[in-house]
Amino acid sequence: MELKGLLKTQAYINGKWVGAASGKTFDVTNPATGEIIAAIPDMDRSDVQKAIDAADAAWPAYRDMTGKERAGIMRNWFNLMMENKDELAYLMTIESGKVMTESLGEVTYGASFIEWFAEEAKRAYGDVIPQHTRDRRLVVIKQSVGVAAAITPWNFPLAMITRKVGPALAAGSPVIVKPPSETPLTGLAISYLAENAGFPPGVYNTVTSTNSSEVGKEFCENKKVRKLSFTGSTPVGKILMSQSAPTLKKLSLELGGNAPFIVFDDADIDAAVKGALISKYRHNGQTCVCVNRILVQDKVYDEFVDKFTQAVQGLKSGNVLDKDVQVGPLINEKGLNKVKEFIKDAVDKGAIITTGGKGTGGLFFQPTVLANATQEMIIAREEVFGPVAPIFRFHTEEEAIQMANDTEYGLASYFYSKDVNRCWRVAEALEYGMVGINEGIISTEVAPFGGMKESGFGREGSKYGMDYFMEIKYLCYGGVKS
């Protein structure tokens, strides 16, 4: 496919396309074929410092622009993403292994955050507080937090960037994006579109590196960075939080998950099967909100296992550029080995493979269903991040809630029931930042995305997303004569 200049092989700092000061590069590989796509700059802390300095220098002029002016540039960027939708999706597919239909969906989803926050840029309202004395007037305004850094994961190469930089740019904060070394090309492509949209030099920057720990450390320790937003594992999130403590940096952390999917005996089983299928196997199970544990009430357990197994057997694997294919490869050998390890552990402890369970060459692995799963298995406690669905049995509503909450994580959860009373009870009892009720896909730009417990804190998307990139300032006017 003709990429119309979107395949960029340099980083983007202060309005210029540049290599690493050291001259080092690293290869980006297609996980479906093993082929090298491109070599791009492998930057170190000195390069990141240049990006931070550029963003800090650009901040005063950018924050002083009106919300409407910033919104205009963001709207241009949104339009350019949609005009280049097919090319962006192709680039995303070849570097991430995500099937083409999902990549096309992600471009639309990712661009929606830019459209949403372009509109919110004009609505960063403050407050007038009724005064407590006659000679005072009390006002609250919201202002840009300052330079914002974003560290994003490989599983959503576009949407995880736009969900972070959208509110930052709308609020008046310049950004530095560090995309993952597995999938940096999509991030560089949208940097090119950001340049064409009209962001001033220094407002939008993208650095590429295989040394994530050093880049993250520079973001945390550099006082010019006022805000850090990270999506990734809980252990890394804890390190970043610790490293940010000396500068008391504002943080948003979207970390690991262990999503339960509960099917009660009064559920529409066919709907539950459909919801579980799309929630579990989207991007081959490699998303932070993918179902990790399916909990089914004993009365409908066998029926669900049979119907779900049949549905999984209908998933098509193959060429990720084929729009009929639903299952692609794992991102790397580490991910593939983890899937194999979790399945072996489950089978050794009594699980039954009802379908799948084998690799099919390269990084491809069959979509797998494990019946008779128990709490003793590794997959009950840890996120598999692959195409494996363990199905647990429960007896009562109380037991289901206890099993679902029996984890340190609290990102996404799902359940199916026709009883409106139960829906309210269970939704309120689940210790998760997001709950899908009779629905397997819950992400949208208009709703807040984020977790609780060790899944992190902060919210992205929706009207709440702007708050995490703004400072609230109280103005007290005294001596007012009335």
From TrEMBL:
GO terms for biological process: gamma-aminobutyric acid catabolic process. The keyword Oxidoreductase applies. InterPro entries: Ald_DH/histidinol_DH, Ald_DH_C, Ald_DH_CS_CYS, Ald_DH_CS_GLU, Ald_DH_N, Aldehyde_DH_dom, Aldehyde_DH_Superfamily, Succ_semiAld_DH. GO terms for cellular component: cytosol. GO terms for molecular function: succinate-semialdehyde dehydrogenase (NAD+) activity. It comes from the Bacteria. Residues 17-474 form the Aldehyde dehydrogenase domain. SUPFAM superfamilies: ALDH-like. This is NAD-dependent succinate-semialdehyde dehydrogenase. Coiled coil: none annotated. Belongs to the aldehyde dehydrogenase family. Keywords: Oxidoreductase. PROSITE patterns: ALDEHYDE_DEHYDR_CYS (PS00070), ALDEHYDE_DEHYDR_GLU (PS00687). PANTHER family: SUCCINATE-SEMIALDEHYDE DEHYDROGENASE, MITOCHONDRIAL. The active site is at 254. Gene3D superfamilies: Aldehyde Dehydrogenase, Chain A, domain 1, Aldehyde Dehydrogenase, Chain A, domain 2.
